[in-house]
Amino acid sequence: MDINARQGTTMRLLLIEDDNDIALVVDQALAADGHQLDRAADGLDGLWMAREGDYGVIVLDLLLPGMNGFKVCRTLRDEGRHTPILMLTAKVGEYDETEGFDCGADDYLRKPFSPAVLRARVTALLRRPPMVKNVERLSRGGVNLDPSTRACQVDGRPVELTGRQAQLLEALLRTEDQPVSRLQLTNSVWGADFDGDPNVVDVYLGYLRTKIGRDKVENVRGLGYRIRA
Fold it and tell me: Does the bond joining 112 to the residue before it have cis omega, within 30 degrees of 0?
C-alpha cells in the first residue's frame, strides 16, 4: 500500500469483533475520521477478509468464535502479511499482552476503551511507514539474522524466532558494539507510542536468551544490552 494513501484521512479498515455493541462503538469512532469499516464477526471469516482485502489497519478482538485473535494474528504474520494490527481484549494481564505482541500485533487496547483513544491509536498505526523487505544479513558473535525472513543461526545451528523476537534481535545487532538502552529497544521494536507493560523488554529479552543462549546477550551495566562479540 502506498505510504501517502496510508497517511490520508480516509482508509478502509477491518474490524474482527463478535460483540455487536463494541462493533458499533468502533464503527462510529472510526467513521468520525472518515474511515470505511468492514467487519467480520468470527476469526475464520476475519482471516479470510484480511487475506483478500487491502486494509490500512486491522482492529482484532482477542476472544473470537472459530479462531481466536492470537491465531488470526500469527497466521497473517507467518504468511508475510504486515498490515498493522490493533488487538482488543477484555482480559487483563501482562502475559496476554506480551503474547499479543509476540504473535505480531502492533498495538494493544484493553476494553472498555475511549473512542478517542481508539481513534488516536489507529491514526498512529496509519502513520507508520509500510514494512520494506530487507535483504541484508546481520551478524555478531556467532549470531546471524536475515531480517527479511527471520532466518537465524547461532554458531551455525538454525534457531526459530517469532516475529517480535527477531525484531528485538535485529535492534541489538544493528548497533554492533554499542549497547542499546531499554527505552531504545522499546521504541525500536514496539514504537515510541507504546504505553503497555514497561517490563515487556525484559520479558522478551528472556525469551531471546532462551533461544540464542544466555551468554550471547550482554548486559552492560548502566548502558543497556548488546550481542556479545
Answer: yes
